[in-house]
Known about the structure:
It is a single chain. By secondary structure, the chain is of the alpha/beta class. It has a domain at 32-163 and 205-254: 3-Layer(aba) Sandwich (Undecaprenyl pyrophosphate synthetase), CATH 3.40.1180. Helices cover 44% and strands 14% of the residues. The protein contains nine helices and six strands, in the order ααβααβαβαβααββα. Helix 3 (45-51) packs across helix 4 (56-74). The longest helix is centred in the middle third of the chain and has 24 residues, at 96-119. It starts with a helix and ends in a 9-residue tail after the last helix.
Amino acid sequence: MSKTNSQWQQEILADFEFTQKQREVFEKIDWTRCPEHIAIIMDGNGRWAKSKMRPRTFGHKAGVDSIYEAVEVCGKLPVNYVTFYAFSTENWSRSETEVRALMELFVASLRKYIDHLVKNDVRIRVIGDLEAMGEKLQKEFEDAAFRTKDCKRLTMTLAMNYSGRTDLTRAVKEISKDVADGKIGAEDVTEELISSRLYTADYPDPELLIRTSGEIRVSNFLLWEIAYSEFVFQDVLWPDFRCQEILEAILEYQERERRFGGA
Length: 263
């Protein structure tokens, strides 16, 4: 039997100490209509660091804490998947120093938080072309995925060296080869088949997409999957993203009428 809104409220309140502002938002949310999958474009680390007259890497380090706080919060809510845009294929154009620092930060943060993820029943997955990121980083993520493979409370996905267009191109090439080899006919190519060839094949499409820092674009992220997602753009810079922003985004999502192209 599914939980009522009141039951969800009681469970969540048992896990959190809300501020008055957070409580005001929390009480407006219907937890029986919470998005199952939330996708997040993390933006603003560099500007946050610049505002404090520190190097960009300082902002990236602070941004890692926001990732795991978001996971901590979502793990206590009726959310089953949270997907972060961690490193895009376009990010390789950044300075060699910044890219190298990011790779080292990814490794360090995995080692720092992996026990906590296991304890909180959080499965970690990675989507994207991880081979291009080096053997060391690839092994770290493979080890993390293995250690958390039986966790069921929440799936935390990091999109690494990821491009929505590249993922679609890869899927089309696979399908084209199957057609050429006679394994399937052209009439068998459906939306469901295309979805099944994407990195996110076994995920539900995200109902809610959040982007921080005031930018209003999707930046090549989950292009197929967000066809009917609700977009919430927040002015907060990513290192300052906390529980309040998650609650506000969920509430805004619920205040919209989702018609999926209908009248």
